[in-house]
Design a protein that fits this description.
Layout lengths: L1 H14 L3 H4 L2 H11 L4 E10 L2 H13 L4 E6 L6 H15 L3 E7 H6 L6 H9 L3 E5 L18 E4 L3 E5 L6 H4 L6 E3 L2 E5 L2 H17 L32 E8 L7 H12 L3 E5 L7 H12 L3 E7 L7 H14 L3 E5 L2 E3 L3 E4 L3 E5 L5 H5 L3 E7 L1 H14 L3 E3 L2 H7 L2 H12 L5
Parallel strand pairs: 2-3, 3-4, 7-13, 10-11, 11-12
Antiparallel strand pairs: 1-8, 1-9, 2-5, 5-6, 6-8, 9-16, 10-14, 12-17, 14-15, 15-16
Helix pairs in contact: 3-10, 4-5, 10-11, 12-16
Length: about 425
């Protein structure tokens, strides 16, 4: 009888899954981020804007319907046709009494091939638009080596927000002669996480301008956002009920938060990882996490572009991709143009869209911000994007590696990987 009871009890215990086994990667990710101060809300809708045309069409429609405030923080506003079109939408809103505030990074401006000059800024300010520069580039240029504001945030009326990988530039629509098509994506968020993005913007705005802009009117003060008409819909059944959190990297405050997010997202994966990132220089922790994921039986798929807008950094990325391919990762090399998209999808359960690259600058130096979306529907929208673009990519294999990369190019990649902490 005693033996029977012990056997029955052991069977009951073994039939109950452990907490660790029962928890899914998304719930573990939320728990980890909450421990480091990230808050999540459950009333959001997230609409993916899959290319530059979709992003700017949607953004301009939202701007045209603004009633109170328009806040924009970008790495750069390129001095081109899309910037001029943006200003043509913003200027009438100022006349209607809408507060319009623009913020850009000094290095981001001067490093693009069509920077805004003082005369351009004077012209914008003459229209009643406030525009300020974070960390202007000045001699002896030491500050400009370190932290730059690489975020991409728009908040309209405290109700509608945009974030992702795109700055204000027409090459997101037209491409460039150097790389051809320029692929990137953004998302529009409506719900409580708009408050978080607004708080990030206002903290940086007040830091740069020495103003003290604050108040409930900037934080969903108008209530319902249903007066914004004609925007691309969130077609998921979870619209208005999505769990979203914002991870915000600020130097000296939250240095490791995005780095740790990526490492933990990979470490927590149980089934699949799909990753697109333009600057794949990687730190040791991320490389180790990807190798370990493969060992656990996780299907790891990585997509990189064969073209890039900068030298040396892509060589380091190709080197890393080759090493990871040899360890069992599936690597797709995208051919038509430059994939500037920065997303990761884990287990079909959660994903991120934001400004952070997988290089040392984004993970260890710059101001960055990503939306973490705990939602299978949105995650699988990104999975479908990934899968559809395999048809325009080639699979990296040992044979293809030697055909595609010359001995000199392979050496250049090896040399570049030694410089990864600086790239």
């Amino acid at each position: 009888m005693t033996t029977f009871l012990i056997t029955a009890l052991l069977g009951l215990i073994l039939s109950v899954p452990s907490t660790a086994k029962a928890q899914t990667s998304d719930s573990l990710m939320v728990a980890h981020l909450q421990k480091v101060g990230v808050t999540f809300s459950n009333d959001n809708q997230v609409t993916l804007l899959m290319n530059g045309q979709e992003k700017f069409d949607d953004l301009f429609k939202a701007i045209d319907q603004a009633r109170k405030s328009i806040h924009m923080e970008y790495f750069n506003f390129r001095n081109d046709s899309i910037n001029r079109l943006l200003i043509s939408h913003l200027a009438p809103k100022v006349k209607e009494g809408v507060e319009v505030r623009l913020l850009f990074d000094g290095f981001g401006n001067i490093s693009n091939n069509q920077p805004m000059r003082r005369s351009d800024l004077d012209s914008i300010r003459a229209k009643g638009i406030e525009i300020y520069e974070f960390n202007p580039v000045r001699f002896p240029f030491i500050n400009d080596i370190w932290s730059r504001d690489h975020r991409k945030i728009v908040v309209i009326d405290g109700l509608v927000a945009y974030t992702g990988g795109m700055n204000v530039a027409d090459y997101y629509i037209n491409g460039t002669p150097q790389v051809g098509e320029w692929h990137d994506m953004h998302c529009r968020i409506q719900g409580a996480e708009v408050n978080t993005l607004q708080a990030i913007f206002l903290r940086m705005w007040n830091k740069v301008t020495k103003q003290n802009i604050h108040g409930p009117q900037y934080f969903r003060g108008l209530g319902h956002d249903d007066y914004f008409m004609g925007l691309k819909p969130d077609t998921c059944c979870t619209a208005r009920h999505k769990k979203v959190g914002i991870i915000n990297r600020e130097p000296h405050t939250s240095n490791k938060i995005i780095r740790d997010f990526y490492t933990n997202a990979i470490n927590l994966a149980k089934d699949s990882i799909k990753l697109i990132n333009p600057y794949f220089t990687l730190n040791h922790g991320v490389k180790k996490a990807l190798r370990n994921a493969v060992k656990r039986g996780v299907k790891v798929e990585i997509m990189l572009s064969i073209r890039s807008d900068i030298p040396l950094t892509p060589d380091c990325g190709f080197y890393n991709a080759h090493k990871l391919m040899k360890r069992g990762c599936t690597v797709w090399m995208y051919k038509p143009g430059f994939h500037h998209t920065k997303v990761i999808m884990v287990d079909g359960r959660f994903c991120t869209v934001g400004s952070a690259n997988l290089n040392a600058r984004s993970l260890s130096w710059d101001y960055e911000e990503n939306a973490v979306i705990i939602d299978p529907c949105t995650t699988n929208e990104l999975n479908r994007l990934f899968d559809s673009e395999k048809s325009q990519s080639f699979l990296l294999t040992p044979e293809k590696w030697k055909q595609w990369r010359t001995p000199w190019q392979r050496f250049r990649g090896w040399f570049a990987h030694l410089l990864a902490p600086l790239l």
